[in-house]
Amino acid sequence: MILLIFATALLIGACTIVHYFKNKYKYWESRGVPYDKPTLFFGSFWRFFFERDNLNKYLERTGKKYDSPYFGFFIFTKPILVIQDIEIAKRIFVKDFVSFPNKLFFPDKHYDPIFNNSLINLRGEDWRYMRRKLSPVFTTGKIKTMLEIIDECSDRLTRYLANIPDGDLEVTEVASRFAADVISLCMFGVKCDCYQKQIHNFQYYGENILTKGTIGVIITVAYIFVHFAVKIFKFTYFNPEGVKYFRGVFTDIFNERKEQYLKRNDLVDILLDFKRSDGNNGRFVHDDTQLLAQAIAFSFAGQETTSSILSFTLHELSLNNSIQDRLRQEIVEISNRYGNLNYRGLHEMKYLSMVVNETLRKHPLTTFVQREALDDYTFPETGLQLERGTGIIVPLKSFHYDPKYFPNPEIYDPERFREQDTHMAFGIGPRGCIGKRFALVTIKMALVNILKKFKVERNAETRETIPINSPLIFRPENCVNVRFTHLSET
Question: Could you tell me the pTM of the whole model?
């Protein structure tokens, strides 16, 4: 009798759970939204995680099934809306930004005080306040003053390339050295001598501030979609070892700058200034966590962005000789006109901008842009009603490879950016990348210096396509192989 009662209770419990999940899975159907049919309990999570089908491929494949401005899927029971219409995307990120100001990342500062206090994941008024305070780092005037430093870093890069015996090189490693060299000098006033060691700690921990491998994938997915897993396993988004290293480095830099009363008008000075002026207004804790959070996040984002875009651009130029020759011609003509290249001359290199934009289109920096509905929201275009807290993602590669916006999207064609600039590689709207202009100037200066001295060619290890393994970041994983031939030898 007891066994019968126990079995009945189990059956009722199981039926109740199944009913609960099935009711949750009616969310998109009840709103007339096409959606990926969920697996019980897991939703669509199983398809892109347990079956090793990374999220980028899942979004690309699933999106092709639906001729609709959007489609839905579920992470366990959490509904996620995938936007496939560029005008709706612009509405979310620009016009109706106040309704979608925050990202989906797990926001609790207790679990990762560095990541969750950084500009990357701050929310609401805290984000607005920090964005406003950090914006002066990237004004046109500040970037102009950094140009000479970036040029010096670019010159060190080309001298390093000139000393490679056969010219064959895996590009991502040296691009990472260059990026660390620029970031450390321009943002923090510290010279790392990244070309003097096999790998400098500043470069190494900048590359590895996010945990890699399977554990890294689990942490990334958990922070975006599966917040309860963060609480259960006490995940930190940033690698604790990297945070420990940068905490020591930046604490020393802050203390030295305070003692010597030096003023470089760089990121360190900006952070110290608003700490002094605003440290007692209730927004900041007293252990410099917010200062360290911005410094670490800028190091990571700047190094990751610069090295990836430079690597992908050199890869594409090695495969497209005519584009490379035309770009070199522009670089030489404008460089000769100005002598020592200045900000104005760099701005006049229109084809260079087109080349970099095409790289960003074909190789976006991240898999998707994400937002969360702050309140209940209705799309005016379709009447779709979303509940507060619903997740929104915009898959960048799907947009960038859509023939409606970019004909023959598989072809690397800078000419498509002669009249448009519609890629969203740096995000869009108020939460777009704060360091976009700095990153672009840095990459362009590197390309100018490289192409004035070298021809970038295929070698025996060059691949036609670059594999991407990260679920969130399009990072070339040590597989961009080219040959640098000095122009005096051609």
Answer: 0.92
